[in-house]
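Run LLM class flavin-dependent oxidoreductase through structure prediction, thanks.
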Amino acid sequence: MKRFDLSVLDLAPVKQDKTIHDTFNDSLDLARHVEKLGYKRFWLAEHHNMASIASSATSVLIGFIANGTKTIRVGSGGVMLPNHSSLVIAEQFGTLESLFPKRIDLGVGRAPGTDGLTAKALGRNPMIINEQFPRQILELQQYFSVENANSAVRAIPGEGCDIPIYILGSSTDSAWLAAEMGLPYAFAGHFAPQMMESAFEIYRENYKPSEEFPKPYIIACVNGIAAETDEEARWLSGTLYQMFINIIRNDRKPYSPPVEDIDSVWNAMEKAHVMNMLRYSFIGSEESVKKQFADFQKQFKVDEIMVTSAIYDHAARLKSYEIIRNATDVLFV
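Sure, done. The structure for LLM class flavin-dependent oxidoreductase is below.
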């Protein structure tokens, strides 16, 4: 079985009984915890107009996390690039890289990270997104290059900074783009598993080596909820299930604690939809999640697995990442 690195995707979840200030402190505590456990990177995702997710000002939060940690890579998973000017993102991430050298990642996606009305408020033009997104990646690469010193428009900070760019996707579109551009590819298997296998095949088979990335590099994002027993993990997963029920119902309220009977919350159609979206969710004891990670890696052979964990209790969330680290470590002993 191919070895893989282990990383974290954090959505800065807002919980019913917590403030956003509490959310940010919990995210920092989690980052420090997984840093000690040897996780490779800690990414934050851009979302807007959601009472359950507080990572809208993604670059600001990356700075907060990077400043409170020492070695773990910190980045975006991702910045939704068409929501922004390429120059502004180059300047923001150039500033971050200048503050925290060799620790900053820039993951970029083309989705809005929100609803249609909010996307409009962000200034997006849906008619040009498919043309705009690859052009903006090229603009970022230009702004980060040393050669851009002779250009009329320069990113300072940013110019000459070594900031790896990762292309994010939840379908096959970005797989083609990442392969064409010779960039690493991260797939959102934690909520959009349907096209993951096809996307990986397209990316690997069509990859054009680049100077920075001579070989294809794949990150798969999955849900992970681990506890001392399978029963406890299944109970903790009630928050994850309610989170996705809320997505289906367009109810953006803060995260809810687990419930005694999840079947009292969803109907049969909602359950089927949620379970399909959460196909790649590794839930259980250390022994159970070890097998789930092993089965996944035998099938997909990725370079890195990024785990996001929607657990309501902060201490249980910390413990989950510890159990997952232990479970994956023993796969290669």
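The chain has two domains: 1-163, 222-333.
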